[in-house]
Amino acid sequence: MNSVPAYNKKQIFSYGILFLSGLYFAFISVYSINQVDLGFQLSAVGRLKAGQVIYKDFDFIRPFFGVIFWDYLLKFIPLQFDYSILISRILVIIESFIICHVIQKLIFERKDLQTTVFLVLCFLHTFPVMPWHTIDGIFFSVLALLFYKKKWYLSSLLFIVFASLTKQSFIIFGLGASVIILIDLFKKFVITKKDLYVFIPSFLFLVAILFQYRIIENFNLFVEQVLQSASPSYLYEGCIAPYFSFEKNFHTIIYILLLILIYFIKINKNIVETVLLVVLPIFIISPFFNDGQFKGAYVLYVLLFILFLKYERQNKFIFLLLFLGWCSSISWGYNTPAFFILILLYKFIEKQDRFFFLLWGIVLTVFSLYRSKYPYSSESLSSKHLFIKNVPAVSGLLVSEKEYSYILEAQQIHSIHKDVIFLPASPLLDIINLSFLNRASWEIDVEYPSWKSDLQKLKTNTIAVDNELLPYYKEGFFVSSMTLELIKQKKVIKKTKYFTIYGN
Question: Tens digits of per-residue pLDDT, 433-463?
Fold first, then answer.
């Protein structure tokens, strides 16, 4: 009896792990829910759909393009459609596939579907699947780099503008990348037809939305809200210090000296690749032992920069992606280069082809286990779960009984008190109830510059304060002064399992 040829075994295994990866993507599309972040971007979209004008009628401290991008993606889907959150999650996964396929075209030798799927697993890592401005900024940035590689300079520059208009940190990437593109453009000024085919409709789209969403009309409000959060000190504290600073200066000096030694000492690249092959699985299991955070992410990212500088300095797109990864990590709440670190780590060891399926299997297994056990701001799969039915926006999601009960209780409160505002940060409930009564769905000071003026307008409103969330918003960076002030002004009229309801 003939044995199965080796190449057929490899092909069968490849199809098998592709199938399992498909199941994983289906799983993360439906599994878990969180009240604070999941609905943030979409609550702003909901306000646009309700006829509100960004910056004028509601506060938004980021540039406008990401929200408008999602408004167009969901143009024909009402946010109260039962499965709108599920659809948005599927779109995020598609967006991630496009990002990784483009990155593959930019720097990888492997061009197959298997590699694309593996890169998507790495890109999404343990991040909750939801529309997010950072992912949108990366999306437009990598498309800009692809156009640059094709020498479509006008389209590249325009998509850098799109990226810069999703989140402030991408302006840094935009400035740096634009200088490089303009230098190449002026060396040999050539505009191709294909470039114009992309540039002209994209530029007209940008002009159209500036008027459609009344950005020009409210430009002063745009500048005021977007720039009010800028802090010169954060450029060091949030952008540089995490990568180079330790608690003790002595450790920082040792760290920098080691990086210099690694760069200058002659080391066979195969040895470095072998070490990184061991580092990758250790790195991806680190969240299990580090409160969900990747241990040593900043150190590893800088090390990758040094290694690419040492062994592959001729590939400028690797360094542009390293730069992009750094810019994407500049954030208040998720300041890590995790979107890029595993992709770039794999790029360095790409030629160790015989370990590809092993790495794929490890990544898929570890992230499946992590998401099952530690879903973001949600309950483990070990508790009883069920699919939500007949609830606006969130139907089709697999959630715990407690989370389902929470949503049903919030709906009941809203049915009794139509003027209720859920505090201190419940954008998902705003979407479910289709209620946008104040100027921000994240009622924390840094996200709500107009909270003091709203305080006067909302004196007569009922408020429902999340019993578990409130302690996190009483002080510190994410303080919700509006919530604390309204609690002082009102009296408790009812306590439920999940909320304390206040009225006049």
Answer: 999 999 999 999 999 999 999 998 898 999 9
